[in-house]
Amino acid sequence: MLAIGRAQDSTRRRNAQGEHTPAVPVLTRAQIKEAERRLSDMGYWTGAVDGVLDGATRAAVIAFQKYEGRPITGRLTIDELDAIRNSAGPKARESGYAHVEVDLDRQVLLIVGERSDQSADSDTSGAHSKETTVRVLPVSTGNDQTFTTGGQESIAYTPRGRFVVYDKSFGWENGQLGSVYYANYITGGVAIHGYLSVPNEPASHGCIRIPMFAAREVSKLLRLGTIVLVYDRVSFVSAKEWADNPRLKKAAMLNAAATDYVDHTTTRSKKGRTKVIRT
Hints:
The chain is of the alpha+beta class. Helices cover 23% and strands 27% of the residues. The longest helix has 14 residues, at 29-42.
């Protein structure tokens, strides 16, 4: 459950020096619900907007803190509520087509879509303009540390670039490095998947970990052929030409399916090629 401090009335805590410190005010259920609704309206994945401080609410707060460059505490306080009230929603790096973005610097994932903007004036044909939408989750990606599996040393690196979801698994899938939940493979053994541990910092073997509560729905949204952009502050590759030309996207998908990392070998697939999994 989300930690939010002590009671608003008489309870006080001691600091490391044994001195009494002011209590952190507890938010009312109405305030929690306001925070959830505002976060949801901005695109953060909150789960139910019900005024309950659950794991989904905490994940939304963490994603907000990551995106805005705030201290990552996962705590919903009065100060955090004020920041939520006065912030604008996250923006995708690229718009005009449905895709996924993974911002490695902020450690967040954005599911980018489009919907008709009913408030905007339609053109002469009666069509409405398109509005870009996002849904945002916190992630944990490759920590760039060396590790060994199957007698081979590798780097826990999340590749940058443009990719396509070329393979999927449903439910739990087991590998030498651990088990992944509803994996969406984008290159070799690198996938967007649910995981039991999603730290606030990079901690994976190269995969893009997302919170368990969202993994199944994310899998439904990330159909085969979904474009995924993975970038940091110095590397960004557009995929608009893939969106505009289905042949190019299909070629990228087939190429990804034919290429695997040679480490982290588990079992053979039905087609006989090596199945590899990073976590």
